[in-house]
Model the fold of this input.
Amino acid sequence: MNATMLEDSNLNAIILAGGEGTRLSSLARRITGEEISKQFCQIFEGTTLLEQTRRRVSLVVPSDRTLIVLNSQHQRFYKLLLSNTAERNLVLQPRNRGTVAAIMYALFRLIQQGRKSTVAIFPCDHYVSDDQRFMLHVQVASSVVNKFPERLVLLGIPADSPESQYGWIEPADPLTLTDAGPVFRIRRFWEKPSPDMAVDFLRQVFCGIVSSLWPQ
Done:
């Protein structure tokens, strides 16, 4: 995928950083010696996952168009990390209410601020080995939304093992063609399938690079 990394003037970003991080709690405890959500833990490269996500997003979306959703109960972990972040770009939940509530809360904040263009949503507890390549795909996804504004776009990665603890994307027919390849409609999203189902999904090559979330 050959492209130039440019700021996307049509794109806002939401970074989700309010989770409890229970799946990696034992690892975070070994690293820090205390109970801490993984997004505030220096697991890779000597920086926290939240800092890495902000750096990645900033390749395309500037900080003044990026909202960060946080859990106010984690204030002691993020206070110094985000000390230079404008208050209008912080969305503070009183407690963790799950992903859907965090996304809707942040979207309403964007609407209140008069920012009604395309929005990219980034969980901050993912490790990405190539930030530039990843954000190029985000730019492709943004271009697809510009072409099909009634749709949501979901980014996925090809599976290399029958993992049953993550979600699987079942693609349908192609929606359009981009520089990164075809964009598929989605037939179904399978959340944490059984091990046998995951083996079957791997054989069927479920999951595309860029996929339209809503089937037609």
Summary: The chain has two domains: 1-130, 148-216.
